[in-house]
Amino acid sequence: MPLPGFHSPVDQPAYGSPPSDKLFAIRAGLSTEVALCNASEILESAAVSAYDCAEHLDGASRKQVLAVVQWVEMAQLLVDEALDRECPVA
């Protein structure tokens, strides 16, 4: 089930625009390579943002943000591995 405000390509009509109550839509026909590249870039940005946030925190709050960074980086490793398998560099 998609998150509120999001919808999957199957919810999108074959033509026209996505439903107006949706904030974000994945373009139907998006290639796996493009999807994985974008996901990798989003995760990289999330890690950088979290590191920047952690610099201004101390104690348990800092540790929590750094834990989130670790989860984001693990997700990025999975996405990058999938990208390498799906679209190997010659």
UniProtKB/TrEMBL annotation:
Write one Pfam family the protein is assigned to.
DUF6124
Taxonomically, the superkingdom here is Bacteria
Q: What is this protein called?
A: DUF3077 domain-containing protein
Source species of the chain: Pseudomonas yamanorum
